[in-house]
Amino acid sequence: MKLFAKGSNVSLILRIALAFVFLYAAISSFLSPNDWIGYMPKFMRGFVPDGLLLAGFSVFEIALSAWLLSGLYAKYSALLAAAMLAGIVVLNPLLLPITFRDVGLFIAALALFAEESRAPAHS
After folding, report:
1. If you count DSSP H runs as helices and E runs as strands, how many of each does the chain have, helices first?
2. Distance between CA atoms of 84 and 108, rounded to whole angstroms?
3. Mean pLDDT estimate for the chain
4. What is the spatial distance between Cα 112 and Cα 49, in angstroms, rounded to a whole number?
5. Other Cβ atoms within 10 Å of 13 Cβ, number
6. Where is 98: in which H helix or E strand?
7. How would you class 52 by CB atoms within 10 Å of its CB: exposed for 0-12, middle for 13-18, buried for 19 or more?
8. Alpha-carbon torsion (85, 19, 75, 110), positive or negative
9. What is the pTM of this model?
10. Tens digits of per-residue pLDDT, 35-47?
11. Is residue 26 pLDDT above 50, yes or no?
């Protein structure tokens, strides 16, 4: 038996890793919103109060984390995570010295999508 058999450990490890990142960012933004509001693209700010925008995004990140951890329709949660991470990098080009890590997370989300696309449908 292979240690990382397709559809088992690889998917689980990637789902946990991605969920951790989104949960950490969400919880941290609730605890220290001033540290996180600067990552919201300027064109998104001003429609609603910054705190509400950040809180809404944080709730979305928590929901995405729960979805990733559930394993249900994992290829779709991976695709949404990849899109969100790509958006963070593309919409914040001046913050690349910080968001460069999100490129690696984007690739991890794509790897999860690829892994789940190969796996037989279980949900």
Report:
1. 5, 0
2. 13
3. 91
4. 35
5. 14
6. helix 96-118
7. exposed
8. positive
9. 0.88
10. 999 999 888 898 9
11. yes
Phi, psi of 6, rounded to the nearest 5 degrees = -55, 135
- What letters, b where the CB count within 10 A reaches 16 and e where it falls short, cover 75-96? bebbbbbbebbbebbeebeeee
Residue 74 tokens, joined:
């994992």
Distance CA 119, CA 31 (A): 38
At residue 115, φ and ψ (nearest 5 deg) are: -60, -45
**Alpha-carbon distances, residue 63 vs 55, 68, 77, 120 (angstroms):** 12, 9, 10, 25
| Residues written for the chain | 123
pLDDT for position 1: 35
